Amino acid sequence: MHNGLWTKTFTLNMFINFVLYVVFYLLTVIMGSVALNQYHVSAGIAGLMSGIFIVGGFAGRLWAGNKVSQVGQKKMLIIAVIYYLLTTICYFALRFIHGIGFGVAATASGTIVGSTVPIERRGEGIGYYALSLTLASATGPFLAILLYQTLGYFYILYSATILLLLAVFAALALQVEPIVVEKKLSDTSFKLSKLFERTALPITFIGLLVGFAYATIVTFLATYTAHLNLLLAGSVYYIIYAIFALISRPFTGRIFDRRGASAIMYPAFVLFALGLVLTGAATTTVTLLLAAALVGLGYGSFTPFGQTIAISNVTVDRIGAATSTFYGFMDVGVGIGPLILGLLIPVLGYRHIYYLAAGVMLAVIFVYFLLFRSKKLA
Predict the structure, then answer these.
(1) Residue 352 above 90 pLDDT?
(2) Cβ(311)–Cβ(200) under 8 Å?
(3) SS in 3 state form for 216-282?
(4) Which domains does the chain have, with CATH numbers?
């Protein structure tokens, strides 16, 4: 393995991950509004329609994390992206099954980056790779809202299909060395330890809570900003979020590698909490966009370095399991958030939902301290 970071495989894999998450956001951000406005369902059911995709993604991640080293990273990625493409085409009754394709493909892509970047530059490398997710989190919602308001829901599906076709071609062009796994008789037996990576569970629990808080941004922001008559600012919110995550990434990755996880994690949790408070308190465009900047610095820093922590103490053949454990439960947080918080909206209102999410992030700081105060990585 050489020390070069920006290889053809690394760059193509970033592009594939970008497409996976753009499609995710294209079809998730607007799903609640589609359910409310076109099907006239309750806020709770709208949240369920948004979240059921994440449940499928979680199922896909659990399976993929254990199988990726056996099937082969590139082969699994190609199959999963094609599956993701086909279920996008046949989307109307297949959102759960669609989520499985996303989960498997995203896990394969995450495993590739975890196993190909130089170990001594892992924080920096995964930090850059995660920019594909960050950029997708800005591009996807912006395109979703723009296309839904100007052309309609079907054009979102058309866009997702075209993007995934490009991802299939990019996956075919990847050059990835297979992970060599020693065959054992016990490999044929079913064990929960094959699905979950035990060493990744502490940061995975943190990721579950962070994902729950982030669900307020993914699912409710479009409707919330429409109520505030700040719909344009709500669209730009994701772009500001991505810009500040992008600005911070070069130096946060180096700080992580040199000074340890806690030097990044504690500021990230505080900034994310402040961003959620400002989002809930927003009455003007300036306040809302300042909140987006804080969320970008906070949440945008947690995701890549959370994965780095998750894979830090595993062998190369368990990187897939560690990646799927971390992202799977983080996705569960994003998935159950709309369902639980959607039920609370009629009682608390949108504004207080963001305050509640900020409270969750303050609790995360305490939980992280308890779990990582004695760990060498932190």
Answers:
(1) yes
(2) yes
(3) HHHHHHHHHHHHCCCHHHHHHHHHHHHHHHHHHHHHHHHHHHHHCCHHHHHHHHHHHHHHHHHHHHC
(4) 8-176+194-372 (1.20.1250.20)
Helix, coil or strand: residue 183? coil
Place of tokens 């990187």: 319
Nearest of 217, 334, 218 to residue 277 by alpha carbon: 217
The C-alpha torsion from 361 through 365 and 366 to 370, rounded to 10°, is 130
Which DSSP letter does residue 312 get? T
Contact 261, 374 (CB under 8 A): no
Residues with Cβ within 8 Å of 297's Cβ and at least 6 positions away in sequence, in order, are 244, 245, 248, 267, 268, 271, 275
CA distances from 336 to 27, 44, 48, 205, 341 (A): 17, 11, 8, 14, 8
| C-alpha span between 314 and 327 (Å, rounded) | 16
What one-letter code names the amino acid at 164?
L
**Secondary structure letter of residue 177 according to DSSP:** P
Q: What percent of the chain has pLDDT over 70?
A: 83
Q: At what angle do helices 43-71 and 73-89 cross, to 10 degrees?
A: 150
Residue 353: predicted pLDDT = 93
The 3-state secondary structure of 5-58, one letter per residue = CCCHHHHHHHHHHHHHHHHHHHHHHCHHHHHHHHCCCCHHHHHHHHHHHHHHHH
Q: Could you report the per-residue pLDDT of 290-311, keeping only the tens digit for each?
A: 999 999 999 988 888 888 888 8
For the record, the structure tokens of 332 come out as 């569960």
Write the single-letter amino acid at 120: E
pTM of the model: 0.69
Q: Give the integer Cα–Cα distance in Å for 348 and 42.
A: 15
| C-alpha closest to that of 68 among 325, 323, 320 | 320
Contact between 224 and 43 under an 8 Å Cβ cutoff? The reply is no
Cβ proximity of 291 and 278 under 8 Å: yes
Q: Which two tokens stand for residue 147?
A: 């296309």
Query: Rounded to whole angstroms, how far apart are CA atoms 22 and 152?
Result: 17
CB-neighbour burial class of residue 62 (10 A; exposed 0-12, middle 13-18, buried 19+): buried
Specify the residue for token string 């060493």.
199
